[in-house]
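YicC family protein
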Amino acid sequence: MIKSMTGFGRGEAKDIERQFVVEIKSVNHRYNDIVIRMPKRLIYLEDQLKNLIKEYIKRGRVEVYITLENIGDTDTRISVNEPLAKQYIDCLKRIKDEFSVLDDISVSLVSKFPDVIKVSPKEEDEDAVWNCLKEAVSNALQKLMKMRASEGVKLAEDINNRCTYIADIVNKIENRSPSVVLEYKQRLYDRIRELLDDDVEIDENRLSMEVALFADKCSITEEIVRLKSHVDQLKKTLKESHPIGRKLDFLIQEMNREINTVGSKSSDLEITNYVVDIKSELEKIREQVQNIE
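Structure:
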């Protein structure tokens, strides 16, 4: 089953201390480009996140938005630097005794001295953080992949229908091709009759040689065979389960090359119109393929 590169998913997860909300969107891109926006305190998890996403997504630009809310204890810890506070108090006592200062030493006074009260981030259980975040990301990825798969089904159906239409036109070109040579022979014969007197005998061998040269010059048998082969390969590729975007792009390029050759070899108006129809369909398929993983 093919997958589109366009999708969106949202996932949530929480434990006793934190809650994660993750939103992931993906769009078409030539390579696998992952951009993650999350709180700075989670930067150490970036590589793990990218590896997780790559398990689901092989191609496309992926943008991940992560928000974190603390629902347990505060994420900071306040502590007292007791040795330092003791030194401040001892200094204040010496000043009081030495200079007979009457003012009392208060807690509010000591707490204002630098580094007596220290505010530091709470140490987190990294495994717990990762497990909670992984759950939220996995939920978002599953929803995103479901959306990508759903759109992929529609893309495959559209491309398959266009391939069937192209195959029908190729058959019409193949059926028309022999008539082009016969019509050329008849036109050549009639033209010679117009230019020569009726009593002049036409050299049939010479006429046959000219027709043979024309037939060889405008032969599109090889191109028709390759076009049919490419159409079959394209249809089979649509049923493959692994990423097929690059392969489809290559097949479309080859089909374009073959049909261009057919157009350059043929001087028949009907075949030329068929060529235009196929090129139009190939362009529509190419646009669809740009969004397939």
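The helical segments are 46-56, 82-99, 107-111, 126-195, 204-217, 221-237, 245-265, 269-289.
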